[in-house]
Amino acid sequence: MLSTRGVQCLRTLSAVPPVWCIKTPTGTKSLVYQKSPAKLARTLKTSSAVFGQHGQTKEAPLPPGATQEKDKILPVAEEFRDPLKPNASPQEVFDWRIQYHDLSFDDHQQLVTEYFEALYHKMEFYRPPMPSMFSLLWPGPTSSRWDSRGRAKIPRGVYLWGTVGGGKTMLMDMFYDTLAGLDSSIKCKRIHYHDFMRDVHRRMHEAKKLAPPRDISRWDTYQPFDPVPPVGDTILEECYILCLDEFQVTDIADAMILKQLFAYLFDKGIILIATSNRPPLDLYKNGLQRSNFVPFLDMLQEKSHVVSLDPGVDYRRKNMGGADQLYFNKADPEQDAESNLNAIFKFMAANETDDVKGMTIRIIGRDVHFNKACGGVLDCEFDELCARPLWTNDYLKLTQVFHSVFIRNIPVLSQQNRSEARRFICLIDTLYDHKLRVIASGDAPYWELFQSQQISEQQRLDESRMLIDDLGLKASEKGSLEAGVFSGEEELFAFDRTVSRLTEMQTKDYWKKWKSYVENR
Predict the structure, then answer these.
(1) For 402-459, what is each residue's pLDDT tens digit?
(2) Burial class (CB in 10 A: 0-12, 13-18, 19+), 510
(3) How far apart, in whole angstroms, are the C-alpha atoms of residue 78 and residue 32?
(4) CA separation (Å) from 472 to 152, 467, 468, 480?
(5) Which residues, listed in sequence order, are joined to residue 438 by a DSSP beta bridge?
(6) pLDDT for position 60
(7) What pTM did the predictor assign?
(8) Is the pLDDT of residue 315 over 80?
(9) d(CA 148, CA 91)
(10) CA-to-CA distance for 168 and 123, rounded, in angstroms?
């Protein structure tokens, strides 16, 4: 058991400082640690453990389905690998990673790779339709008129869905990374769905500010302005291959925007690659006014190959063996959660060039205060992050300021604290996507934090009273409270992904990704 009293201060005096070197034999950046030629280190003493890279080397408890470290096949070291050619296709990259044990062969992943391989070769010759000569000479006030030639040749994208931990994001990223080697002129963009929608709302706001003035002489006539075409045009200027990770529609405003926006983007030749835990027909399931969203689902299936990836294995859990313990269960006295978190924070803070103090961050015109931080390390209670009205924009700002986040005292989550559960899911998604390190403690093992405790219809009505009133719903109407925004179904579904990501965030491979991400951002 590790405690602050059992830790003596560690100081390393290096004649030559450690160096993190970037090697790119495969076209992807990886960091390799080179030891200094000479160094002096004072002995570190603990009660029963020795500090690792973050002050803790006690092996993490394994969730159901995890593999013991002794049963894992270790990847081949970089120096013993043949280099991967810069213009390797998705199939070649997949085979190369299997050959050197980065991946194990999986029939389901092989099938998905074949879809990406076919699309990869089509991208060599595909370019989206260009604006017609007419639109260049007489552009419309709110939209661009495009040449319709070549629309029939627009390749279909890939909508990849399946259970958590199956490798969806990994395979999409593998396809995305190979496009630069195919042709440097290909315009492609890879972004998390939440970040994409946040950016779309920002563009919508900017487009409305630039809308043409109303014709005062026609004051009694409705003069609509459609921001979708100018927003769509700005997206098309940046990319014509759009890769969206974690496609999940839960917001009524997003649902209505997606239908109009992608009708425009698909018409102009954009190719969508998306990953999701749901098949297309289950998107925005039980959502408010879902009938207005259904045409988008038909369009999505028409413009994309819908591919299921369900290998029956959560590879994040399977690869957890040997991970250091970074989540502590407060209900288990042997884990001594508070003392261990204090010790790890003390170790990390010693490597920062700042004092331990409160910090206030300016986020879109408002101040958000945190009680304890040190340089790039944030140490806070669950309530500071998830009991306050924070959301994606706020969590994204944290990823720009901090590289490590401590989350203390996570409660058991259920429909009774559904708002906090939603924020926690969003928080972990954001921190994971930006490769931040997370150290946490909670009232139960992290794979048991979310429990499906049913609440009465009256409790659901009381908790959602303000939203129900704003939407003009009547509680007496049949099914009015069964929408996903009220039922808690979406949170229960999404928490499987959160558990899977918390599992990976404790592994050594994830911490290596963190170092690479920090080096290159």
Answers:
(1) 999 999 999 999 888 888 998 999 999 999 988 999 999 999 999 999 887 665 555 5
(2) buried
(3) 9
(4) 43, 9, 6, 10
(5) 405
(6) 67
(7) 0.69
(8) no
(9) 33
(10) 20
Residues, the chain:
521
387-392-393 Cα angle (round to 5): 110
* Triad 145, 147, 153: Cα angle to 5°: 135
Q: Which residue has the higher pLDDT, 476 or 497?
A: 497
Residue 365 neighbours by CB under 8 Å, 6+ apart? none
Element (H, E) at 64: none
Would you give the distance in Å from CA 332 to the centre of its chain? 30
**493/207: higher pLDDT:** 207
Contact 440, 408 (CB under 8 A): yes
- Helix and strand numbers, DSSP H then E, in the chain: 18, 15
CA 280 to CA 475: how far, in whole Å? 29
CA atoms within 13 A on the CB side of 146: 19
Is residue 248 within 8 Å of residue 280, measured between CB atoms?
A: no
Q: Judge contact between 516 and 29, C-beta under 8 A.
A: yes
185-189 long-range contacts (CB < 8 A, ≥24 apart) are 186/123, 186/241, 187/238, 187/239, 187/240, 187/241, 188/239, 188/240, 188/241, 188/242, 188/243, 189/238, 189/239, 189/241, 189/242, 189/243
What is the Cα–Cα distance from 7 to 48, expressed in whole angstroms?
A: 10
Give pLDDT tens digits for 260-311.
Answer: 999 999 999 999 999 998 899 988 887 777 888 899 999 999 999 999 998 7
Q: Which of 90, 166, 159, 33 is nearest to 98 (CA)?
A: 90
Tell me the per-residue pLDDT of 101-127, one tens digit each, with 9 for 90 and over: 998 899 999 999 999 999 999 999 998
Orientation angle between helical segments 418-433 and 392-401, nearest 10 degrees: 40
Q: Taken in order 460, 465, 470, 472, is the CA torsion positive or negative?
A: positive
Amino acid identity at 432: Y
Helix then strand then coil, % of the chain, to nearest 5 = 45, 15, 40
| C-alpha dihedral sign at 55, 430, 462, 476 | negative
